[in-house]
Amino acid sequence: MEAIKFSYNVPGDDFTRAGDASTDLKSKLKKMGVTGAPLRNISISLYEGEINLAIHAGGGEITALVYPDKVELYLDDNGPGIADISLALQEGYSSATEEIRSLGFGAGMGLPNMKKYADEFYIESEVGKGTHIKMVVNL
Amino acid sequence: MKIKDIIELLNATNLTPDLDCEKELHSACGSDMMSDVLAYVKDQAVLLTGLNNPQVIRTADMMDMLCVVYVRGKKPDALSLKLAVEKDICVLSTDKPLFTCCGILYDNGLRGA
Questions:
Q1: Cross-chain CB nearest to A107 (options B36, B55, B61)
Q2: For a 10 Å CB count at each end of chain B, is N or C smaller?
């Protein structure tokens, strides 16, 4: 069955707008009848990813594919990339600046949270080229 | 406990007077770190925080929270308040510090995770 597709551009220079895509997708999914734990898991994993795009990657693209039984989330950026993915996936590890921490993020929980709330999580990254993440949340 | 009870207990100002204050709440969390709220909190209805940016309201929205209490006299900016109203999240502000607020609410029956 063909998926319903939603696409978002996440700006890298406006922290106040980080979360616009997650808020919009949550609202659309709600209207489509998605509720409870799956809706929350999609919202949190996408929101964490969106924050990462805004504060680490200089912005990026989000694509959500909604199927009857699952939602696939793709986050793509051309940012600095991640040198050590296994280290970045450890809870508490963060490369965030003090400025980002003062905004309530950068506790080293972004990628771990995405992995925790998604049913499937895939990440590819190359230093100097960018990062590509795919998450699947079952409905 | 209802949102209107929190207003009274914390001597708080209701910054979203048009929203429903009769909603029942059973649990809360206090944190200035939104990453931690997203990581460790579930089924909490109230977020108490001293952090003041739109991501507070967005975090509360992602977690399906019903009420945000700004402590230490903090007040949200216009964008945060607009977002809160759109998402039907009650916003309160109190002069009391975070620890005191948590103590008062716990003492009156609200629990953490």
A1: B36
A2: C
Which tens digit of pLDDT belongs to each residue from A14-72? 888 889 999 999 999 999 999 999 999 999 999 999 999 998 899 999 999 999 999 99
Q: Is residue A19 less than 8 Å (CB to CB) from chain B?
A: yes
Instruction: Compare CB distances from A105 to B35, B79, B83 and report the shortest one's residue.
Output: B35
How confident is the model over B28-76, as pLDDT tens digits? 999 999 988 888 777 779 999 999 989 999 999 999 999 999 999 999 9
Domains of chain B are 3-107 (3.40.1390.20)
Instruction: Classify burial at B39, counting beta carbons within 10 Å of its beta carbon; exposed 0-12, middle 13-18, buried 19 or more.
Output: buried
Residue A113 neighbours by CB distance under 10 Å: 23
Query: Do the Cβ atoms of A105 and B35 come closer than 8 Å?
Result: yes
Q: What is the ipTM of this complex?
A: 0.85
**Fold (topology level) of A4-138:** Heat Shock Protein 90 (3.30.565)
Does any CB of chain A come closer than 8 Å to the CB of residue B56? yes
Is residue A85 within a helix (H) or strand (E), and if so which, with residue range?
helix A85-88
C-alpha pair distances (Å), B8 with each of A129, B98, B105: 54, 16, 11
Q: Helix, strand, or coil here: A33?
A: coil
Top residue of B62, B79, B83 to mutate, by most chain A CBs within 10 Å, is B62
